[in-house]
Amino acid sequence: MENPSGALSRLLSLDAMRGFTIAAMIMVNFPGHEDYVFPTLRHTQWNGLTFTDLIAPTFLFIVGVSIALAYSKKRDAPKGALYRKIIIRSLKIFAVGMFLNMLPDFNFSNLRYTGTLHRIAIVFLVCAILFLNTNWKQQFGLAVTILLLYWLALTTIPTPGIGKVMLEPGVNLAAWVDQQYLPGKMWQGTWDPEGILSTFPSIATTITGMLAGQLMLLPLSPNEKSNYLLTAGFAIAALGYFWNLIFPTNENLWTSSFVLVTSGFASMLLGALYFLIDIRGGRKGITLGVIFGANAIAAYVLADILALLFYIMPVGADTLNHHAVAALSQSGMDPRLASMLYALFFVCINFIPAFLLYKKRIFIKL
């Protein structure tokens, strides 16, 4: 998903968007102190939307755009070799996700089989094969069907064992399916935000990115492409807002309204960045995004590994991150600001190897 081939593969706006999304993911995943975090830098506990909730769907949207750019000229090629490459890449991403889940103690008896990379692997596998075998109208129809069926399933089918429709944590239909069929440890004990049923609407999220990518390939002027991305994004987000009134925006359930609101935001962001960077030629302030974006998943994996030193390994009586936040707080700084500054410091630490890889033109593809 890094550096896709194709006529528009070197869109600096897409590279920057991918990289800034990874940087934001690292920042919110690794606060300086888990007890001191600004509300918008936390995931919403249940219904609602914060800055943090936008990050994962934005990355899946980018995956969809990248699929369209990478495979648009390969639809007529022999499928066998392509399928093998797609399957192998998906398995590698899933395997790395499993490795990260086992850190730091490799406790196989308490293993979680889901996570961010696991979901990326699954949606990439499904959507890449889907893209090679369908046109945009079929993809659009499938996304709409998924979102409608998911909405109807969660709002009309009573949770088994309870006898009524529930959308609360751990007692909804998605949680019940995970309790019955999801192996291993669940993130929240009785439910998992990357569970089985919620993977289907996440596929719809990636399809919206595929549709945006195919729009970018149309014989339109750059300004028209930007305008269409902005207009469509606003319309989709508005539709998601109104759907939210009867089917709440919820990242943990990855509700249909959540898909529309976040995909609309991602489309508007891509349209704006495409206008500013690729059309207007703006280059100031995008270096971090472009460099992280060149090795996005590698940077994400490296952050989890470096966290062993910067967050887990004891330094005296406590960990390095807690020492740093305590020192800044004692100087009079708001602990939440101190926690955020340490998170940004950790992003910069991860930028160093990403920069070295970029400088040597090394692009790691899982």
Describe this structure in words.
The chain has 13 helices and two strands, in the order αααααααααααββαα. It has one domain (12-359). It has helices at residues 12-29, 51-71, 79-102, 116-133, 136-156, 173-181, 196-216, 222-244, 256-279, 287-294, 296-312, 320-330, 335-359, and strands spanning 314-315, 318-319. Strands 1-2 form a two-stranded antiparallel ribbon. With 366 residues, it is mostly helical. Helices cover 66% and strands 1% of the residues. The relative contact order is 0.17. The longest helix is centred in the last third of the chain and has 25 residues, at 335-359. The protein starts with 11 loop residues before the first helix and ends in a 7-residue tail after the last helix. It holds the Pfam family HGSNAT_cat. InterPro entries: HGSNAT_cat (IPR012429).
Q: Could you state the oligomeric state of the chains shown?
A: single chain
Order of helices and strands: HHHHHHHHHHHEEHH
Helix content: 55-70%
Mean pLDDT: 94
Query: Count the strands?
Result: 2
SSE class: mainly alpha
Q: Tell me the domain tally.
A: 1
